[in-house]
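Section 5.1 Outputs to date
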Amino acid sequence: MRIWITGGDGQLARALQQQLRRQGAPFVATNRSQCDLTDYRAVESFAQQYRPTLIMHTAAFTHVDHAQQHQLQALADNLLATRNLTHIAQPYRAKIVFFSTDYLFDGTKTSPYLESDCPNPLQWYGKSKLLAEETLHPYPNHLIIRLSWLYSTERGFVLAILQQLRTQASLTVVENEIGTPTFIPSIVPAILALATSPAVGTYHLASEGEVSRYHLAQATLNLAQRSLNLSTNPTLHAITSHAYRQAHPQTATRPIYSPLASQKAKQTLAIASLGTWQEHLQAFFRHYLL
C-alpha cells in the first residue's frame, strides 16, 4: 500500500503520520509548496511519480470565519483540490479518504446527526465541504469521514481556552452551541482502520456524548486547576451565539446543535466505543503534560 497524505503540515496529518510511523507503514506527506492541489498538472505529476493506492486527503481551508470572507480561496482549496485528486486517482484505482465536518448540518435536530441526514450548511465553509463531498460521489472508491470539533495539543478550542485560562481572569464562552469535541490522537486509530478497510461511502467519527462550548470550557478549567499551576483563578461567563456574533460581526454562523452519531463506524470496525468527550479531554491533558 502506497499512502499519500495531503496537507502534511496540518494537525490531523501530523497525527496520522505519527501513528503510521508507529505501525511501520510507508507513506509520503506533502504540503502546498511540495504539491499545490489546486494545480491539476502538479497533482498529476506527483501521482505519476508516487502512484498512490490510498490518498488521505487532509488538506483543506478550515478557518470557518475566513472562509466566509475568502470564498473563492475556500472553494479552490476544498472543492477544486478534491476534484483534481478524484481525477488522478482513477488510473491507480486509489482509495480517496476525504475529511469533512459537522458544519454540513444546520443544527435543527435534537439528536445526533446520522450519515443519512440531509446536509444544509449555514456558512460558506460548510458549503464548500459539501460541494467537495458531492464531487467525490461518482468515484466509487471514496471514503468520506466527517469529524467534529477537532482539537489537539497544537490547536483547537480546548487549547485556545487553556491558553486564555493561563493569562486571563475572565473568559466569555458561547453557551448554546452543542457538539461532540474530538481529540485527534484519540480518533486516529479508528480513522486508519476505516481507511485501510474495504469501507467506502460516508462515516461519522467523533467522541461520544455531547456538550456545549461553555461546559467544555468549564471541564477544561476544572482539569487545569487540578493538573496545572494556574497563576489566575479565572471566571467563566456564558453568552449566546447570537450575542457573540453581534459583538463579533465577522464571525460565521455555526449550527446550534451538531453532534455526530458514530454507530455506523463502530459497527463496521466492531468496536464498542470511540471514547466519551470526557475521556478525550482527559487524554488531551495527558498529552499536554508530556
